[in-house]
Amino acid sequence: MVDIYHLLLGLAALLLVIYFIVELNYFLRSLLCLIQANFFKQKKFILDETTISGICISNDVDYLLNHMNNARYARELDFAKLDFYQRTGLYKNVASKGGALFVGATTIRYRRFIKIFTKYQIKTKIIYWDNQNIYLEHQFLTKSGFVNAIAMCRIRLVKVDAEQIMKDLIENVPKKVIDIEAGKNKQKLTLSPELEKWIESNQISSEKLREKDKSKSNEEVGGIA
Fold this sequence. Notes:
Number of domains: 1
Distance between the termini: 71 Å
CATH topology: Thiol Ester Dehydrase, Chain A
CATH class: Alpha Beta
CATH architecture: Roll
Shape: globular
Radius of gyration: 22 Å
């Protein structure tokens, strides 16, 4: 009896340690999203919109304890992307060609609080792409349909051509995709004015940082000499 007690106590202590050093909620939620996207949700055409649902709980609120904190919005985008990647076949297509993808930039505009215990949806869709990047738009909507926040994300593809990836996904629609909504005409999306300015802003920032890195590197070389 004592041995069982000590075993259970040790197991509880181990779980407690794991809980504090690993973000279990994040990984469990990611696993749930992955299972739902692969086995329980309809596959989507690459230019269609995907939707996931969530609720603002006590773990999500800020110090005022009444609405979602700013950092949680970005965290929720991970689950929206995971759902989108799996249901549209984007990740599978990129990985099959030996490529990878990661987030290169994100901008979120907050319009109205998502209050505690409020249900919301995140709608995700592609708004543009070039030879290196795919641009996603995420909208946080509450029950009334109001857009509480909107985010733009630049997904950087490496070791593959984003134009070719999109061409493959547009021309070779999987049989499991029943409804094709946004992509009926299968044409490349036009670059919107706000996205064009955002891309330009990111390029200016990149050039500025490269100049700073170059200057620092020259200083280090000079110091060694």
